[in-house]
């Protein structure tokens, strides 16, 4: 589809060209990425092995941690290695793969956050019907739909990227490949593609954010009728979810709901949701969740006992 291209690779300028700052970027990205892997894999292992975490909320949290791990892995390792290079290049095909994985796992995260909000709504507003509405089969179907929806969204991004002709400049002023920076390099009028991008990615981000905030307002409003203990527990869970939603969606909305003009702060805002959010998610969910903390302690003590037994 990109037959009219004579660009086979792109040069990524990264976050900075200053050698000292590049070292700082290397250290920060490496620490955040390792933290993301440890935190999310720990949550995945805890949910898989713990009997106490069998409810739908943890079923969705398992997939959120998985998408966080994959989302971060599609960006961070390359950025970490690029920070050590004098000139970072990425082939056209690798660039397209990164666009796909970035949007696939980012979109999956959005859909899973929506499923988690729906789960909390049913648990708090319809507690008597919770286990019948959110049974294992329903949860499995919802997650499968999230995967299919993310795949469709990503394929649209790839289709838009491959429809752009690249015939000259190949320097991307960013640390990753995304449709926005690619639009700036295309040697044709990108107005329609940009419009499609905003109506696709921008709409998904904005509509999802409004839906999530509205659902949490409804949930918080319904807590008036709960006991003090029930209210405290539900409030703790909902607040951690709201923090995650704001951390992820506000930067996404800023990036994807406007023309493809590049602002100097774009790269820093991208860092926030591509590196920051996957790192903070496990912290937010474990530090504010007693059940997860207890399950982790049990898992850890079991491991220590089995090690001692050897």
Features:
single chain; about 300 residues; mainly alpha; Rhopdopsin 7-helix transmembrane proteins; 3 strands; Olfactory receptor 4C16-like
Structural summary, described in words:
The mean pLDDT is 86. Helix 1 runs antiparallel to helix 2 (56-73). This protein has one domain: Up-down Bundle (Rhopdopsin 7-helix transmembrane proteins), CATH 1.20.1070. With 310 residues, it is mainly α. It contains eleven helices and three strands; from the N terminus they run βαααβαααβααααα. Strands 2-1-3 form a three-stranded mixed beta sheet. The relative contact order is 0.15. It comes from Castor canadensis. This is Olfactory receptor 4C16-like.
Produce a short descriptive summary.
This protein has 310 residues and is mostly helical.
> What's the CATH C level?
Mainly Alpha
Cα Rg? 21 Å
CATH architecture descriptor = Up-down Bundle
Lateral arrangement of strands in the main beta sheet: 2-1-3
Query: How many domains, as an integer?
Result: 1
User: How many E strands?
Assistant: 3
């Amino acid at each position: 589809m990109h037959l009219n291209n004579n660009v086979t690779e792109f040069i990524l300028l990264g976050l900075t060209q200053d050698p000292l700052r590049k070292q700082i970027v290397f250290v920060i990205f490496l620490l955040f990425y390792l933290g993301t892997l440890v935190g999310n894999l720990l949550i995945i292992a805890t949910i898989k092995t713990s009997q106490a975490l069998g409810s739908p909320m943890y079923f969705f949290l398992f997939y959120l941690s998985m998408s966080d791990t994959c989302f971060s892995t599609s960006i961070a390792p390359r950025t970490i290695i690029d920070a050590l290079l004098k000139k970072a290049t990425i082939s056209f095909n690798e660039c397209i793969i990164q666009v796909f994985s970035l949007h696939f796992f980012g979109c999956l995260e959005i859909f899973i956050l929506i499923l988690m909000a729906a789960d909390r709504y049913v648990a708090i507003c319809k507690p008597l019907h919770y286990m019948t509405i959110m049974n294992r089969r329903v949860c499995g179907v919802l997650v499968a739909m999230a995967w299919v929806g993310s795949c469709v969204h990503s394929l649209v991004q790839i289709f838009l990227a491959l429809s752009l002709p690249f015939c000259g400049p190949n320097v991307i002023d960013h640390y990753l490949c995304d449709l926005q920076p690619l639009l700036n390099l295309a040697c044709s009028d990108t107005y329609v593609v940009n419009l499609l991008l905003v109506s696709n990615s921008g709409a998904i981000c904005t509509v999802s954010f409004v839906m999530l905030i509205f659902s949490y307002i409804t949930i918080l409003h319904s807590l008036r009728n709960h006991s003090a203990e029930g209210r405290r527990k539900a409030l703790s869970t909902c607040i951690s979810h709201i923090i995650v939603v704001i951390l992820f969606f506000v930067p996404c909305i800023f990036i994807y709901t406007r023309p493809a003009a590049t602002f100097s702060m774009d790269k820093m805002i991208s860092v926030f949701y591509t590196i920051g959010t996957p790192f903070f998610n496990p912290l937010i969910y474990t530090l504010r969740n007693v059940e997860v903390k207890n399950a982790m302690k049990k898992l850890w003590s079991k491991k220590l006992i089995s090690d001692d037994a050897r």
